[in-house]
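Fold it.
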Amino acid sequence: MTHRLLITAVTSALICGGTLSPQRTAVAEAPQPPQLSFRTAIEPILRRRCYSCHGPDKQEAGLRLDKRAAALQGGDSGPALRPGNPTNSTLLRRVRSNDPATRMPPDGARLTPAEIATLTEWIDRGASWAEGETAAAHWAFQPVTHAGHPNLTGDAWSFNPVDRFVLRGLRREQTKPSPTASRPILVRRVHLDLLGLPPTSAQSQHWLTHPDLDWYHQMVDSLLASPHFGERAGRLWLDLARYADTDGYEKDRPRPHAYHWRDWVMDAINRDLPYDQFTEQQLAGDLLPGATAETRLATGFHRNTLRNTEGGTDQEEFRLKAVVDRLNTTGSIWLGLTVGCAECHTHKYDPITQREFYEMMAFFNTSDDRSMKAPSPDEINRYNLAKAGWDKTKADLDNELEAYLKNESPKKRAAWKKTYRPTGPSWAALTVEKLTATDDVKLTADDKGVIRAGGNNPET
């Protein structure tokens, strides 16, 4: 519609400027009938009146009307549609008929004259279908564009651009905005919205008596900076990600370390991790270049699936159930689509084929679950402090040992050699004398055993 309005405006400007001849003006202004949209004008009629018997679930008399190729092929009575030829289209003859043996629908309310006229016009123009409009024509698949702020006259109520959209909607409903909330109500609302808890007495008193004109903005900023904001906002994501602290199923065993991923979500929100990174790290954080323990921890998103540990279960069956669950959850969260319908058949409403479902499933089916150590930042700090203390103690002991071996050990060895008297077998005495003949000899465990067995000082 926008393009037609633009063309009309340009054409009018050219006519007013005298650059078009009357003959060309007449051609340019020839009215063109608006194009009928299958999705908005035709499919609702077929869905209400025809799909229950001739749709994806049931095809009475072999006729299916939710697909163009099937409708053109027709059923037992031949093609239902003849594009450009309403007179010979069986569909129209049946909905117009008054014969109980041939009329459609056979039971219930008949099509209205307006509905029949719409179908007639659609067939006369060639019976264009949704497939011709492409799936991208659906509103949900349109790229996000800047809508522009409504320009409202006499607007003394709005404080920001979002308010203008609200006010426009209120005016359409002929409703006036509610009175401005008092400061106590605002303080309570904002705390509940951002933290999920009402303000404490001290917090209420602080903001109720705050002297600055921008006290409200300061309050919002302080609550957004609170670690409790991540806890509040993170709960919404945990619900979408089917987070739980137990496995589910009959055993429902606890998951004592699941909280690590939960804490990652809350920390990511509190540190304002951009949404694209928030997405990448949860879907494939272990595959990112330079993956860290933190980005690998993010993939715990995929470990929130149910896990069956009951005796006698087929582990491969439940592994595949987990893979399907990961695909379905990813589709519902990031695509906003019920991808799971295509596990058993091509989706009846969304543009997802069964083949595409399993192509996407193959991505998840090539991964293996692997446990990893995921200490919290507090645990890492405590470990680093303890390790630093241990490293210092060990270094001091190493220095003392080195000093002892360098200074004290030779003296004690010389003193021992002077007092040594062999008391064991002669072979042991000879071995001891040989081993102690030089100060540089390296004694093995066996050598030390011989010395102890043949010497008169087994404590040495």
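The radius of gyration is 40 Å.
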